[in-house]
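WP5 quarterly update. Target: Domain of unknown function DB domain-containing protein. Source organism: Steinernema carpocapsae. Length: 226 aa.
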Amino acid sequence: MRLFLTVLFLFLSYVASEPTEETEFEAELECPQIPDASCCVEKWDRRCVPRNCVFYVMKHCPDRKPLLFGRGSKLAVKSLRRAPAKEEPKCGTRESGYRPCTSKSVANKLFMSCCQLYVSPDCHHMCHYETDHSEAKKMLLDTLKGDKCSLRNFSAVLYCASQNRDNRRCCIDLDLNVPQLRVGSRCLRLCDPSGTSIDRISRQDATCFFNWNVIMFCHHSGIREL
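Structure tokens (predicted):
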């Protein structure tokens, strides 16, 4: 028994004094010692993880846990790379929801400048991009009830609103020609500056003008950056 204990003691002493493969490997790689706060951002060789980072990563940035282990580490490193930035959709397009390219204040100045050239002063109150449904409806009713702003100016107002751009695609996407309106594609002529001159209003036109705010939104979205 005494002989067995002596042999066991000598064996353990040998093992303790013999440098392990891991110790030699760490010495060869010169495993870094980094502050705890850097454990979630610092890069290291997966074969030589800083000892102090093991529990810190588990607690504060568990998405880096695969880096603590050999298996699956390549996938983990790849997942940490920043994904390519998605290109923002261009303004004024269907992909951006027809988000205008210009601010409303700038667009309104362009609108009014055109109206000062082509529209009677009595109709200048219409020369702004009113996209609020209630306000647009009130403005049109006041205009139609009055006798100062002639309907003959409506074509010029729409021309200035569009800045000579065809915005029918926007009007279609915003349902200005859906069957529920029961006017076919009649409203789309208000979205195209080359459309038929508007010198009289029928019941069908009234349905289109009821959506004046949508028409103004599409004309505003059609203006490109200067």
